[in-house]
Amino acid sequence: MKNEIDGCCGEYCKLTRKQRMYGFAYCFAIGCILGLLGTALVALGNLTAFAICYSLGTIMSLASSLFLWGPWHQIKNMFKETRWIATCVMLASIAMTLVSAIVWKSVALAIIFAFIQFLAFFWYCLSYIPYARAVARNCMGSCMNV
């Protein structure tokens, strides 16, 4: 029986499992680097570059899983019952980060939406790890009760 990751892309995927793993790792690393670069750019006062780099970083990190599962499987999983809210919040916050920086030129709103973008992406990623959201909720509950 084939591993699920080996049969994920269907007949159109010509990449080997090792190539898909490298693609995932590189794409995710580029996403993280873009996010860090965006964070540095806001400190330097370049709001538009911040919003673009940070949002592209989130998109690249999200797109990295396309190498593992394939586009159709990824899109179906993004909108499953356990993830659709996090997905919608993440996509909306990406759009609002860009609008806040480019159209409204509001540093405060761009940073707030980038933070929401980070939290939504983090929550989205936790949904792929069994019991991770429950552990995160318990940790936050413990922190709030201190």
UniProtKB/TrEMBL annotation:
| Principal localisation | membrane
Please provide the record's keywords in A-Z order: Membrane, Protein transport, Transmembrane, Transmembrane helix, Transport
GO biological process annotations for this chain's record? protein transport; vesicle-mediated transport
What residue ranges carry the coiled-coil annotation? none
GO-annotated cellular components: cytoplasm; endomembrane system; membrane
Q: Which InterPro entries match?
A: Vesicle_transpt_Got1/SFT2, Vesicle_transpt_SFT2
Keyword Endoplasmic reticulum attached: no
Task: List the membrane topology term(s).
Answer: Multi-pass membrane protein
Q: Where are the transmembrane segments?
A: 21-43, 49-72, 84-104, 110-131
| Location in or out of the cell | Membrane
Family statement: Belongs to the SFT2 family.
Q: What does this protein do?
A: May be involved in fusion of retrograde transport vesicles derived from an endocytic compartment with the Golgi complex.
What is the name of this protein?
Vesicle transport protein
> Organism source for this protein?
Salpingoeca rosetta (strain ATCC 50818 / BSB-021)
**Classification lineage:** Eukaryota, Choanoflagellata, Craspedida, Salpingoecidae, Salpingoeca
